[in-house]
Structure formats: structure tokens, C-alpha cells
Amino acid sequence: MSGLGAFKGRWFVVKIGGELAADRPKLAGSVGAAVRAFLDAGVRVAVIHGGGPQATELTNKLGLTPRMVAGRRVTDEATLEVVKMTLAGQVSVDVAAAFRLAGVPALCTTGVSAGLIDARKRPPKVITGAGPEPIDLGLVGDVTDVNTALFERLSEAGLVPVLGSLSGDAQGQVFNINADTVATRVAAKLRAAKLFLVSNVPGVLADKNDPSTRIPTLTPAEAQEKIALGVIQGGMIPKVEESLSMLEEGIEAIHIVGISPAHALLGEAQGAGSFGTAFLRNR
User: Fold this and answer.
1) What is the pLDDT of residues 188-205, one digit of tens each?
2) Confidence of residue 283 (pLDDT cuts 50, 70, 90)
3) Domain 5-280 sits in CATH 3.40.1160.10
4) Is 67 annotated to bind ligand?
5) Is 60 within any annotated ligand binding site?
6) Where is substrate annotated to bind (predicted)?
7) What mean pLDDT comes out for the span 257-271?
8) Residue 129: burial class (beta carbons within 10 Å; 0-12, 13-18, 19+)
């Protein structure tokens, strides 16, 4: 594909929101087709997926009460069991099926497997949008290490590693981690050329109710200003903050892009800001 040849041998990391997994044909025809095109151009690809909507649905079915703080899930023991069932089970299988439909050789697992992603419990922290007091998110982890050698070996074997955003430590503890956080850390460690955060949202919007107000590109300073002004709010804040924190750690560009139209991800890969919002270190 035109424009992708320049990235031959480099890594692209693609994060897909759990809400996209239910419609397998749509996921296959959009993200799956783009990943297939990346592979055909010689680009190495890793995929991270979330499962928030599925976890919330199962939590409600089990009579539990989901607790969210500024777009982040509080994870107690019961919630962790739910997240394991959805991320490593339902969503993982749905993504695997969609990628197989697209001809993508996906190996779907979680960051716990073979120590692909190590983590430790996140200490209480002040969270943007949640007031001045530190918040304890429970069994939520911070990434401490990424087994880049294993990612490389999987790629060399012709496979695309597809990970649900669970991680663990050497003592056997499992942690839930925001999928955007995992994706940014993996992309940084792999020194990815591009990180794509794919969801139903077509990018950062000046008016969240009007897709035509999509902002094509943002520098870190411009993005911080949008957060301060309330243009970027809710669940988009942690997504943007994770993106900004990783720009200086080796990722060349981070793109927030929607799943529609079907060629949005591929088009954004070929031209920053064409279909989403691209975060660039410099203009």
C-alpha cells in the first residue's frame, strides 16, 4: 500500500476498544483489513484490546455495581474476576474470530502469558477530573516491563500478538490495566513508529456531539490547553494524557481514530490527521 513501505520492519501498535469486538464483520473489514495491509507492507503489528462494555454488562448481570472514577474502572477482587472472564474470554475470542476473517494470523492472549507485560499495583494517585484527593483504583497495575524480545519472536514467526489488557507479576498476582495505558507502554518499549487508538470516536472533537469538529493534529501544548478548557473531557482525558506521556519515549506519532468509515485506520496510517486526530511531538 502506498505510503506504508517507509515503515517496513518497524512496529505499529493498534489498540481497539472492547465496544468494537461484538461486530466481527465490521471489525474484520476495518481494523482487520488495515492490519492485513500493514503486514503485507512488511510492518510489524501488535494489538491491544479492552473490554470495558463487556465487563460492565457482565458486572450488572452478576448483580455487582461497577464503579468508575473519571473514566477509569475501580477493580476489587470480584471485578477482577469479571474482567478476566471478559478480556481473556469473550473479547479475546471475538477479536480472534474477526482477525481470522480478515486473514490476519492473530495469537490472542493477555499480558499475563509468558510475562509479556509485567506490572505492579498502582499506588493511590490524584486523577484528573476526580478532585484533589488521591484515588485507590484497587487491583489496577502500572506496567513495569514489556518483554520486547518475545514480541519480536512472535512477529518473526509470522504472528500478530493480540493482548487483552491484563498483566501480572512474578508472584502470580493479576492486575487490570486500562487498555490505552498498556498500548502506550508497549508502543514505547517497541519504539513503534505509530500507535493507533481505535474506537467509535473519530478523534478529538471540538464539540463532542459534532463529528465534523474533529481536530486533525495536536501538539502536547495544544492538547493540554484543550483539557484545561474542557474541550477534552471524561474518558478521553486518560486516553490523551497517556498519549502525551509517551510521545517523548520513542513513539513518533499517536493517532486517535474511529472505526468508521471502514478505511479510516488505513487512511490515517497513510496520512496523519486524515481520518483521526494525530498527536505529534512537533508540527
Assistant:
1) 999 999 999 999 989 888
2) low
3) yes
4) no
5) no
6) 51-52, 73, 176
7) 94
8) middle
